[in-house]
Fold:
Amino acid sequence: MTVIGVDDTDSRDRGMCTTYLAARIAERAAEVASVERLLLVRLNPAVEHKTRGNAALAVHTDADSETAFEIAREEVAAVAETDDPRTNPGLVVAPGTPEAVPESVAEFAEKAVRDLHEVEDAEQIVEDAGYRSAGWKMGRGKIGALAAVGAWRAFGEDGAVGGTKTGVGGADWTYECISYREPERVGTPREVDADSVFEAANAAYPAAWDTVDRETGELVCVPHTPGPILHGIRGDDPETVREVAEAIESEPVERRVLFVTNQGTDAHLRDGSLSEVEDGRAYCVTGTVAEEPENRRGGHVFFSLEEETEALRCAAFEPTKRFRDRVRDLRPGDRITACGEVADGTLKLEKFAVRELNSTELVTPDCPDCGRSMKSAGAGQGYRCRDCETSAPGKVEREVGRELEKGWYEVPPEARRHIAKPLIRGGFDAPIHPEK
Ligand code: ATP
Structure:
């Protein structure tokens, strides 16, 4: 067996995609040996160099490692968008089965999903393991390529790793069936029949998720960016995603490829306390909402979460759309668990769980005799009703109606990060309010 890892071959505006490159490598490998699987691993979404979703790819094949390396090197050289200054491809080829990579490689993969690496770290491990590798330009892609090589062992055959106390982040492998466009059509508008997408998506829900956004009518499975992908169907099992892909009516499909992935798993999240969060990582943190959420220019919503003497700013940005209404519904005193990546000291909310709702507010008391609102009797002297000569020592508690309920709320499918786990997939520690 041989594991081929590859990353950083595409460009934001020229439209390649490392999944397509991996599919081509797998096709070439299949001419000389068998190909067991293609792995699409989403790494730390906080990495600033990423083109889009920080994907890295691995091909597990029977081809011997020398042949595999030559095939992969030719394909990267042929299709990588190396003219883009931001594209720095990397290739790592490991002889042996994906389960048999050294511990250091598996650890590297685990860290690549939740933390930050330097190219030199990857190069050292590649050298120690005796792997073949190649880098183009500064070769930053070797980080993702090595992580892709180690992912199968790191996340276990059943994908089970880590997991947070809150139930999110207990990774499990999921599937994506990607259908690619004919090369001559790339760059032209995609022709996909929306009705057939909705019909197939509804028939397969929730085993296939994030195919569409039922509230906005958006086809989430069809990318907006230039590139070879026509649509990608994500779900819990390989049969379902393939069936949905096949049921969609569209322009001709050049090829259709099944990837095993860590998408939709929350593998990037770790438990944290407000005092330990750091930029460039993603957390689940529990605290108390400190003030009324504030609407800012651009449609973003901000509030602070407090715990003892610590505070953390949380944000629901404009692209998270109707999720912002759930965030606006929060009140000071609510206790929540907030999940998301931290950048510039701000947690960018992907989902949150309401633990306790503050359902009371302090108001001026009403007079027990006439029922009218009492007036202040002066600073620190409570309230009184002049007409009835009644008094009260201070404000009183009143029930407040709340829109939110206990449990988990999330961004809509069209705003979901690739690695984020849709609530409908289950396994959470409180009731769920899924966005469909
Ligand atoms: P592509 O389709 O080309 O893979 P992408 O959105 O996945 O696009 P890349 O272009 O691969 O993003 O850019 C991500 C870069 O960051 C790669 O060079 C990868 O090796 C590197 N990288 C990935 N994870 C980490 C990490 N945890 N720490 C540091 N660098 C990382």
User: Anything to note?
Assistant: The chain has eight helices and 23 strands.
